[in-house]
Amino acid sequence: MIYGAFIREVNKGAEDAIVAYDSDSHRQGCLIYLGDVEKTIFVPFKIFTSCRSELVAFLQTQILGGLPDKAKLIVGMNDGTLTLQNEANA
After folding, report:
1. How far apart are CA 73 and CA 68, in angstroms?
2. What is residue 18's three-state secondary structure?
3. Which end of the chain is more exposed for a tag (fewer CB within 10 A), N or C?
């Protein structure tokens, strides 16, 4: 349960918007559910391990900024900057 403390930390600063999470060993990462199963953010394990503290602040900002309904998003990295994109376009 390596993601438990991380999820609690993100959720604390994101006004408890995270309702559940799953460790996804097949895809190697963590799937975060926001509000319902229609709105998710996938965090790849590689990004989780390489920039965890930056990732916490990034996710809090993105969640508080509002995400589209039925969004299936994935965290990525572009030139050293965290990004959030639609999974279909990743």
Report:
1. 10
2. strand
3. N
DSSP for 20-88 reads EEEEETTTTEEEEEESEEEEEEEEEHHHHHHSHHHHHHHHHHHHHH---TT-EEEEEEETTEEEEEEGG
- Looking only at the bridges linking them, the beta strands covering 36-44 and 29-34 are antiparallel
Residues near 27 by Cβ (< 8 Å), separated by ≥ 6? 42, 44
- Reported pTM: 0.89
Residues 33, 39: Cα–Cα separation, whole Å: 6
The pLDDT averaged over each successive group of 10 residues in the chain (90 residues) is 88 91 86 85 94 95 88 94 86
